[in-house]
Design brief:
elongated, Mechanosensitive ion channel, 5-stranded antiparallel β-sheet, Helix Hairpins, transmembrane helix, MscS_channel_2nd, SH3 type barrels, mechanosensitive monoatomic ion channel activity, about 50% helix, Alpha-Beta Plaits, membrane, alpha+beta, 7 helices
Length: about 280
């Protein structure tokens, strides 16, 4: 009877011992994750206060969060009594298997690191890539998020971004405004050039120390097409674009210069009633 009591007493002691360890491990995980969230918020505030580049901030914070959580989990595992070296070997094997199945994600991670290092663009830049154009909202570990001019959110994989051409409109302080305008073949080209050049030189959006061009671009089917080009400040581009298109039409109408439109001429040939000889 005493042997039976001793046997069950040992089992109960082991259950209590491991139960306490598991309870402590759970407490470490809960407290550690809460502490990690708090530290993440503190680090974010410090980064903002020091005016750290938003691209680096949005990329680094998730990495710091993941690393801290891994450390918390390793501490909890060690508390239970599992050797960290053995656990690390198991995790390394799992990581290798997961890595093979997530090669695309790993290439996105590498792409994100290279974007942060070489900075082909940053948060707030207006870019065109992979057939999409918009303002960069965030650069995360795996993806870059842009917001288009019509407020659509587009999520682009970092690896695809890095391996394809990127047009960054925010690097230079100015942008060239291009207007293609057609006039009739009967209109005076030199007069039209002077009118349009005067319009550009008197417009406040146009940068006067940059080239202003009004030249013949091509001879189309029903019009002589002119290339009207001038430089504006980057932030004024769309305002200047819409204003000058409207102003061009007004100025040409005022000076009696027509903008032709395509016309189709149809000829109807009546059949003759004469019979062949």
């Amino acid at each position: 009877m005493e042997k039976e009591v001793e046997k069950y007493s040992w089992i109960i002691d082991e259950i209590i011992k491991y139960g306490m360890k598991i309870g402590i491990a759970i407490f470490i995980i809960v407290a550690g994750f809460w502490l990690g969230s708090w530290l993440k918020g503190v680090i974010r505030k410090r980064m903002i206060k020091r005016n750290l580049d938003p691209s680096i901030r949005e990329f680094a914070l998730p990495v710091i969060d993941v690393v801290f959580k891994i450390l918390v989990l390793l501490t909890a595992v060690n508390t239970v009594g599992i050797e960290i070296t053995s656990f690390a070997a198991i995790m390394a094997g799992l990581a290798a298997g997961v890595g093979l199945s997530l090669q695309g994600s790993l290439s996105n991670l590498a792409g994100g690191l290279l974007i942060i290092m070489f900075k082909p663009f940053k948060v707030g830049d207006f870019i065109e890539a992979l057939g999409n154009s918009g303002t960069v909202e965030s650069i995360s570990i795996l993806y870059t998020t842009i917001v288009t001019v019509n407020q659509q959110v587009v999520i682009l994989p970092n690896s695809s971004l890095l391996n394809n051409p990127i047009m960054n409109y925010s690097v230079k302080p100015t942008r060239r405004l291009d207007i293609k305008i057609g006039i009739s073949y009967s209109d005076d080209v030199e007069k039209t050039q002077k009118i349009l050049k005067d319009m550009l030189e008197n417009d406040p959006y146009i940068i006067k120390d940059q080239p202003i061009t009004v030249e013949v671009l091509e001879f189309a089917d029903s019009s002589v097409n002119l290339a009207v080009r001038a430089f504006v400040k980057r932030e004024d581009y769309w305002d200047a674009y819409f204003k000058l298109y409207k102003q061009t039409k007004t100025v040409l109408d005022k000076n009696g210069i027509s903008i032709p439109f395509p016309q189709t001429e149809m000829r109807i040939i009546q059949p003759t009633n004469e019979s062949p000889q």
